[in-house]
Amino acid sequence: MEKLLNDFSYGLFFWQLVILTILILLLAKFAWKPILNSLSEREEGIKSALESAENARKEMQDLQADNQRILNEARAERDTMLKEAREMKEKIVADAKTEAQAQGLKLIEQAKAAIESEKNAAMAELKLQVSSLSLSIAEKLLKDELSNTEAQTKLVEKMLGDVKLN
Predict the structure, then answer these.
(1) What is the pLDDT of residue 164?
(2) Are 155 and 145 in contact (CB under 8 A)?
(3) pTM recorded for the entire structure
(4) 119-128 pLDDT, tens digit each
């Protein structure tokens, strides 16, 4: 340490102090202002970027809320449309069933009427055939019975007896 104190020069110290002061003055005049201006501009840019990011985040939240609202509305509308479609389908099916039942009943009634008329026609034809057959049988029986005179006399007496009873 003694050696350092021995080598100390006041002249060198003075000139170093003058150079340091000039350097500080030059830096203050020419360098500090641009450095401080660029730092403040950078700070403003960062603040602006942060504000823009915050605004973008808020807009994204708003958009997400709007999207969710629109999605919910679309789902509700879809559900309403599906419900209406189901109701329309059920109504159409019910109307078709009612129409089919009505037409079925109408066809059944027509078939019953046709069956009844066919039955009546068949009965009339059957009666005609039965009466024709009966007459034919009666004719053959009468021919056989009336072929002899004794049988003719018995038949006439029997008929006369039946007429008196009635």
Answers:
(1) 66
(2) yes
(3) 0.41
(4) 999 998 988 8
